[in-house]
Amino acid sequence: MLYPKEVSQAGIREHAVITEDAWQLICQDILLPRAKKRVLYLLERMERTEYQLRDKLKSDGHPADVIDEAIAYVKEYHYIDDLRYACAYIRAHEHAKSRYQMQQALMQKGVKRDVIDEALAEAYEADIDALIRRLLEKKHYDPGCMDRKETGKIYQSLMRKGFRAEEIRRVMRTFDTDADPFDGGDIS
User: Fold this and answer.
1) Could you read off the pLDDT of 17-47 as tens digits, one per residue?
2) Helix-strand-coil percent breakdown of the chain, rounded to 5?
3) Where does 4-76 sit in CATH, by number?
């Protein structure tokens, strides 16, 4: 964690024991400013969750107390906010992913379950039926031309994406009665 120049300035010698006071000085004077700069650099590139920042600092070799102080620093200025991050993520992905997929992705990013639930209540505005319809169209769903096996594969695919069975069946039923007048169907 320390550069050779910093080691010599701190008076650290090979095989020598570092006193608690010396360690605290190293943490406060060298490691903490470096951790703060690192966190700000990471946030400059893109928004991140607290978990992601902690994980990055830990992988860089920063001590736990330095990580806590660096995170507290960016929280103090509202540079990180997991609720804001979750809301932005939901708004960006709500037309392509199910609620379940977004919950799973946010949990993998270290966002707590209660924050995810609050963000979904606040930011999720997608029309589930429209989203399922779009995915069915993308998979070229046509109940008139498909057998049960093909329909079942598409149905299972949507189930794996986190949609509920009744939502999928409701939208699939509308394909039976919908006829596009410009697609060779009956105009009347």
Assistant:
1) 877 787 787 888 888 999 999 999 999 989 9
2) 70, 0, 30
3) 1.10.10.10
